[in-house]
Design goal:
Blueprint lengths: L3 H5 L5 H14 L50 H4 L24 H8 L6 E6 L7 H16 L3 E6 L6 H5 L8 H6 L1 H5 L5 H6 L3 E2 L6 E3 L13 H14 L2 E6 L6 H9 L2 E6 L3 H16 L3 H5 L2 E5 L9 H11 L2 E5 L18 H15 L3
Parallel strand pairs: 1-5, 1-6, 2-4, 2-5, 6-7, 7-8
Antiparallel strand pairs: 3-4
Helix pairs in contact: 2-14, 4-15, 5-15
């Protein structure tokens, strides 16, 4: 399916197509059409406490085997997810009235909770940094895990020191993908005790809605994450979780990146309404199509995230453009709690933002 020539050739009409799109975005007037909106055993060696980080040739990729996910707890009902009234005796806290879409719709929850048949792997991709790839991975995982009652894991597979582990998980230990790789043989041999063994290398989101496999700060680890090792890790994660969300790196020529793309069930293209970010996403889709992944591109989902309160003049044009290039395009609003770039709390989002992420997550799993 893939050849070196297919991965390296450039599409001749990509530049002209993109220039036309940007021209429409810059010149769009007020009347322009709008787009539709366990068993006892010796513990693993301790690790250092988690903290903030310090200041090729073509190959064939085997297919990762999949096993049914382990059973998860019963998903919460819509009523359980609604905010609870204050206890008696306490003064009511002033708050803004929620919008009509402040709660996840029952339809979105039903789409998120349906039986997927087997474990599904979803990769969040864009070779450019700063396009909300990690944010989208965290919030989509939180929405899926909240609706499904667990069974979701987010893996930081950024080869050059990603931040998903710091932004999404509780720092109950400092173990990362590096420690899992070092003990991969032991974990694979755990048999029926695989979930307990794997859990010693995972962090958990603050609300417990999803698990986290953190990335490592050592860039030398990328040499050890060869295609075979990546597939072994994926096999473990798909045997213990119903949905695996992967925050990918930025190098589309990396063997790791290609292995992930060759093994996923759905791609999620993350971008923001900026020319450089959207052009990078569009170029990547061309690159994938030329590499033989046209079906993945056709069935991908694009996530347009708002980094500022003002959407900007390009939003509608980009939404229309990526709706034609991918299966669907979802827009998620700006939220002030995400602006500091610190730990992400799904419950800290505005109600309408949470509702938008439930809808976006449902769009991602539709058709899987």
């Amino acid at each position: 399916m893939n050849t070196p020539e297919a991965w390296n050739n450039d599409r001749s009409d990509a530049g002209s197509r993109w220039q036309k799109l940007l021209g429409r975005g810059r010149g769009r007037g007020a009347d322009a059409p709008q787009a539709p909106p366990p068993q006892q055993r010796e513990p693993y060696p301790p690790s250092q406490p988690a903290g903030p980080p310090p200041g090729q040739a073509h190959y064939s990729v085997p297919t990762a085997g999949r096993r049914p996910p382990v059973a998860t707890q019963t998903p919460p009902s819509v009523a359980q997810m609604r905010p609870q009234p204050p206890q008696q005796g306490l003064p009511p806290q002033p708050r803004q009235a929620p919008s009509p879409q402040a709660e996840p719709s029952p339809v979105a929850l039903q789409r998120l909770r349906r039986d997927l048949g087997r474990s599904q792997v979803i990769a969040f991709i864009n070779p450019k940094g700063g396009v909300h790839k990690t944010t989208a991975t965290v919030l989509a995982s939180a929405a899926m895990g909240t609706a499904r009652g667990g069974g979701v894991i987010a893996w930081d597979d950024n080869e050059l020191r990603g931040t998903l582990g710091l932004r999404a998980g509780s720092a109950r230990h400092g173990r990362t993908i590096r420690h899992l790789v070092e003990h991969l043989d032991q974990v694979e041999a755990a048999g029926v005790h695989l979930p307990e063994h794997l859990d010693e290398f995972l962090r958990h989101s603050s609300d417990g809605s999803f698990d986290v496999l953190a990335g490592d700060e050592d860039p030398k680890l990328q040499r050890r994450l060869d295609p075979t090792t990546v597939l072994r890790v994926l096999d473990i994660l798909t045997r213990t979780h119903g949905i695996v969300c992967i925050d990918t790196g930025n190098n589309v020529e990396s063997p790791n990146w290609r292995t992930v793309v060759s093994s996923v069930d759905r791609l999620v293209v993350t971008t923001v309404p900026r020319e450089d970010a959207a052009f990078s996403a569009d170029w990547m889709l061309d690159h994938l199509e030329e590499g033989g992944y046209g079906n993945l591109v056709k069935n991908a989902v694009t996530l347009l995230s708002m980094p500022t309160p003002n959407p900007g003049p390009l939003l509608n044009d980009l939404q229309r453009h990526f709706s034609q290039r991918t299966r669907a395009c979802a827009v998620v609003p700006y939220d002030p709690s995400l602006e500091p770039g610190a730990k992400i709390e799904f419950s800290a989002l505005r109600p309408e933002t949470r509702a938008a992420w439930f809808e976006a997550a449902a769009t991602i799993v539709d058709g899987l």
